[in-house]
Amino acid sequence: MSIRPVKRVIMSKPTLEGAGVHLRRAFGFDNTSEFDPFLLLDDFRNDIPADYRAGFPWHPHRGIETITYVLAGTVEHGASMGTMAS
């Protein structure tokens, strides 16, 4: 097994998404071909619950798998089709 070197470091950018959710987006703005198979990477780290409580309006994922990585605390994700993941 070989270890690949870091190609580049990307700083995330403050972004408003959904119904006004404050987050930081590392990638997913422009050409994402070098991140394939991932489309975007968002960081929801925040100590102000009001910044993300608005949530996201209904939107289809069209077969795209959502992966949630939680470092601390909890998260509840309700998919547009009514299924819940937590």
Written description of the protein model:
Helix content is 0%, strand content 22%. The chain is built from no helices and 5 strands. The chain is globular and about 40 Å long.
Any chance you could write out the topology, listing elements then pairs?
Blueprint lengths: L12 E5 L3 E7 L13 E3 L33 E2 L5 E2 L1
Unreliable parts: none
Terminal CA distance reads: 34 Å
Rg from Cα: 15 Å
- Give the helix tally: 0
Total domain modules: 1
Pairing-aware structural class of the strands and helices? mainly beta
Fraction in beta strands: 15-25%
Q: What string gives the helices and strands in order?
A: EEEEE
Provide the spatial order of strands within the biggest beta sheet.
1-2-3
Summarize the biggest pleated sheet.
3 strands, antiparallel
- How many beta-strand elements? 5
Helicity, as a percent range: under 10%
Principal-axis shape equals globular
Assembly of the depicted chains: single chain
Mean pLDDT across all amino acids: 79
